[in-house]
Amino acid sequence: MKTYHIPVLIEELVEFISPAPGMIIVDATIGGGGHAKAMLERMANKGLLIGIDQDPDAISYCQHLKESFGEMVVLFQERFSRLDRVLDKLGIDKVDAIYFDLGVSWHQLEEAERGFSFMRNGPLDMRMNPSEGEPAYSILSKLNVRELEQIFREYGEERYSHRVAKAIVELRRQGRRLKRTRELAELVERVVPRRGQRVHPATRIFQALRIYVNQELDELKKGLEKAYSRLKRGGRIAVISYHSLEDRIVKNSFREWAKGSGFKILTKKPIQPKQEEIKANPKARSAKLRCGEKIR
C-alpha cells in the first residue's frame, strides 16, 4: 500500500493520550491513519476510535483500519469543527481523548491536482475538501491589492505581501489569470528577493492561501472548543501544530481553560521531534505537540 502520510511525534502522542482497552478516542484529523493505528494497537480490541477528516481521500484510504480492527473504527468525512455532530450521530456524549494533527499530509502535497505545493504543477485549488468552498485561483482572480496583502501578511507572515498582491492584480489588468501552482510560484520568485533564503520565496504565500481557502485558524478555534466540551473528566486533548499561528491558538486556548482550574496543561513547553525523527522525516522539523487534561 502506498504511503499516504508519515505520522509525526507518534511515540510522544501515544504516551500523552495513554490509550487503553475500553476507551473512546477521537482522531480529529485521521489523514493516513498512522496515529490511529498506534492507538488501536494499544486498545487490545476493546473500545472505539472515531476518525474524522474533511478530505475524502483520507477517509477512503483509512478503510484499511476497519479491515484490521473491525467495529473498533468508525470514519466520518467531516470538518473537525463539527465533531459534536459526529458524536451526536453516534449517541456519544463524552469521550476519553481527542487529538489533532494539523497541516497538510504528504499525499496532499504529492498530488498535483490538489494544488497545495509549488513543487507540483497543478490547478491552484488547495481545498482540503474538493467539493466544499472556493478554490485558490478563484480568490486570486477577484480580491483587490489590500485584501490579498492582508491574507499574505496575516496568514503567511510574508514581508513582501504588498509587492506580491500588487503583482497579482497587475497581471489581472493585463487580462491574465493565475490558474496553476507553477504560475503563482514563478510570479512570487520574480517579485520577492531571494537573498540567500533557504526556503523557497513562494512558501509563505502558498501557506497563507491554503489557510485562507480552508479557514484553518477559525476551524481550529471552533474545533478546540468543541473538543474541550466533549471531553470526560480526566480526558486528554493533544494537538500537533506546524506553524506559529496554529501553535499560538492552541497555547492560548489551553491557558484560558486552565484559568478556571478545570484543566491541567501537561506540556509546559511544546514537545518537538528528536533529531533522529527529523533526519528520517525532514517535514517533522516544525512540529510542536501540546497536551492537556480536563480535571473537572
- How many helical elements? 14
The biggest beta sheet is recorded as: 7 strands, mixed
The neighbouring-strand order within the major sheet is 3-2-1-4-5-7-6
Strand content: 5-15%
* CATH fold type of the largest domain: Rossmann fold
Helix fraction bin = 40-55%
| CA radius of gyration | 20 Å
Distance between the termini: 43 Å
Mean pLDDT, to the nearest integer, reads: 94
- Name the helix and strand elements from N-terminus to C-terminus, one letter apiece: HEHEHHEHEHHHHHHHEHEHE
Q: For this structure, what is the CATH class of the largest domain?
A: Alpha Beta
Regions with little confidence, pLDDT below 50 for 5+ residues: none
CATH superfamily of the largest domain: Vaccinia Virus protein VP39
| Count of domain modules | 2
Give me the count of strands. 7
Structural class: alpha/beta
Outline: globular
What is the CATH architecture annotation of the largest domain? 3-Layer(aba) Sandwich
Q: Specify the oligomeric state.
A: single chain
Keywords summarizing the entry:
296 residues; alpha/beta; DNA polymerase, domain 1; 2 domains; seven-stranded mixed β-sheet; 44% helix; globular
Task: Please tell me about this protein's structure.
The protein has 296 residues and is α/β, with parallel strands linked by helices. Helix content is 44%, strand content 15%. The chain is built from 14 helices and 7 strands. The N and C termini lie far apart (43 Å).
